[in-house]
Amino acid sequence: MRTSRPARIGQYTALLAYLVFLAFPFLWLLSTAFKPPRELGSLHPTWIPKNPTLDNFRQAFGEQPLLQAALNSLTAALGAAVIAVLIATPMAYVVARRRTRLAKAVTGWVVVSQAFPFVLLIIPLFLVLKNLGLINSVPGLVLVYVVWALPFALWMLAGYVRAVPPELEEAAAVDGAGRVRTLVSVTAPLLAPGIVATGLFAFITAWNEFFFALVLLKTPEKQTLPVVLTHFIGAEGVADLGPLAAAAFLATLPSLVVFALIQRRITGGMLTGAVKS
Description:
By secondary structure, this protein is mainly α. The chain has 13 helices and no strands. The two termini are 26 Å apart.
């Protein structure tokens, strides 16, 4: 069916409006990060700073341990993404290939668990980490992020496994390969786009997570970047807007860079999952 010209114009207009809606916060944050205090307090704000300055970045790094916080966030996010993918991949294979009641129950539980609010999980997780001696530690936070990311990673990877033709695994079995060898040598390479996409979502979720890090990490040198950003807000709720914008801009860069580097692989994985033999 051919789309009429007014309909195409309406579609492109809606798409442009959506892109502006998505880009506006980031562009405004970038503009604020380079504005001097006089422009930040102006009654007539402008998009482009009239006198751009790097003082906000210098002040942000001088007031708070941003580099250490970024290293803590990177450790927690990368560790959670890698561990979650390593655990979820074989689990997703079993759930996708075993059409049993137990597999259906696991899938249902995965979907239901996504509706649980953070508040219901923080108390039991806190008690478990306390018994393990992992309170106020980055490894303990990694464990929490793995638990939180596993259901989504399992559900996502199971869809990719179902897109892999079972005939390939049957051919490997005829050649004498066992289940583990088939998963490692045949299925896993075909799941590479899905594994990358799942790891990316797990990484970004852990990188941006705030609530668990706020409750579990108390020592300043162990806190993650989202928690350290709150230190730019004073006791009376007044934000130091310039340094806060500079620090927040730097905090958004890693996830944007990671997504830009592997977005082609994610798109390829989505197209692969949409094609069935």
